[in-house]
Amino acid sequence: MPLQADTRIDVFESIFLVFLGLGTLVGVVVIAYTLYNAYKYRDNGDLKTDDSLPTLGELPTGGKGGKKLFLSFGISAIIVISLIIWTYGMLLYVEDPSDEFEEDPIEIDVLGNQFAWYFEYENGVESINTMTVPADHPVAIEVTGGDVWHSFGISDLRVKADAIPGEYDETWFMAEEAGEEHTIECFELCGDGHSAMDGTVQVMEQDEFDEWLDNQLALDIEIVTEDEESAADAVDELELVHVEDGTEYTFDADDFDEEGTLELNEELEQGGDFELTIAFDEEVTYEDEATDTIEDSFSVTSPSSESYTIEANGDETDDEDDNDEDDGGDDE
């Protein structure tokens, strides 16, 4: 069974230290035994009749040391087999530690494209070359490539996963210290810009990370006139629909501020593609055309804003009516 380990760093450092310690111990024993025998059987010019001494041209019989030889082989075999079993157990923990996690890991999809890293979180938030994670929280990543072979790696955190087009490699890590930054690298030669294909892992406190993640789904919808004055009073209903899950958000003119902006932050739970429909009380001019509805589609994967400039046709109609009345009065 593997020792309890919290991070990949703990696992690989444990394996390294055990191999280093055992290798050092074996080396000391072998060298000491070699020096001892070299001293014991040194040639001082005296003839000896000891039958246990090796004789030139003859195979050593082992003499009375046969039991020691087999004992050394047996102990060595036990040590090696135990080491293999222990190491295998530790590596199994690295491959699938989900049963050991006290809380569900954060899932992030990683895409490697010449020459940048693209990250997508569970709620649809996306970022390029910067992965933001909470401290002391497991992070599960699924890595793939979009064009050629890449290899996603974070040396500080002992993370490496192949990014191959059409295939998905899953791994995990845990960053312990908030405020630290770790370098992301590509470990597979992937083209002229390979050496510049790097990124950063930013580690935050859990509360700070939650706030950051929520703020990434911020959307401002602005409806103004050409003079940049609010035109939100003309809105009858604004409907926003998430394309993937069908979630609908409905607003009216009262939800806009004085500047004609509808600010959405906590309302949006999932990023991705949205379809927008703005229905007006009466016809307006939008992009030089008269309409009572504006339809649009866009993606929200980071703080975004959409602006629509309209002119109310009712104002023009009122002006024309006033002119007609004035003309009629002159005729009389």
From TrEMBL:
Biased composition (Acidic residues): 313-332
UniProt record similarity statement: Belongs to the cytochrome c oxidase subunit 2 family.
Residue ranges annotated for the Cytochrome oxidase subunit II copper A binding domain, each copy included: 103-215
Region spans: Disordered: 287-332
Biased composition (Polar residues): 296-310
SUPFAM superfamilies to which the protein is assigned, alphabetical: Cupredoxins
Subcellular location: Membrane
Record's keyword annotation contains Transmembrane: yes
Membrane topology: Multi-pass membrane protein
InterPro entries: CcO_II, CcO_II-like_C, Copper_CuA, Cupredoxin, Cyt_c_oxidase_su2
Protein name: Cytochrome C oxidase subunit II
Keyword annotations from UniProtKB, A to Z: Copper, Electron transport, Membrane, Metal-binding, Respiratory chain, Transmembrane, Transmembrane helix, Transport
One GO term describing the cellular component: membrane
GO terms for biological process, alphabetical: ATP synthesis coupled electron transport
Transmembrane segments annotated in the record for this chain: 15-36, 69-94
A family per Pfam: COX2
Signal peptide bounds: none
Recorded GO MF terms: copper ion binding; cytochrome-c oxidase activity; oxidoreductase activity
